[in-house]
Amino acid sequence: MSDGMKQGKFDYIGEYREGLAFVRNNIKEFKVGFIDEAGNVVIPLDYYGRVTVDGRERLVHFPFFSEGLTAVMNADGKFGYIDRHNNTVVPFCYDDARPFTCGLAAVKKNGRYGFINSNGEEILSLEYDWAGEFSELAPVRRGDKLGFVNKRGDIVVPFVINYKDVYLSD
Asked: Who wins on pLDDT, 143 or 4?
């Protein structure tokens, strides 16, 4: 570990994924970045783990790299995606962002979820009340019903499952 780590530079260090770990400076400021396995800061703590927007708190729920990208949040509470070299790959325009799985990530904008690819192109339209991560299918919600879609956007499992009967994080 680097001297900065030994001196307690961070109050939180996440798990390593794809060789990098999420770090937070302190609970009050909640500025975040990433370190490598030697403890060196490779993505500066220029991002935020928590921001209040219109009286509502936004949090980074998935602070790890997946498929070479991670969702981070700016001071305005908007999410975008960066690569491991801190290059912005997908602009900061989303209200929520999930990890990439199977080449797609669920994102939220204007209260609706859909899916983008790693170039930021909308692949499945922003039409759902909630969306999870892809495996072969992805869970999506309309109203109080869950269904599952494939990567083409076809509804494979109809919207018949009451989401309150299933544990899913919102």
From this structure: 143
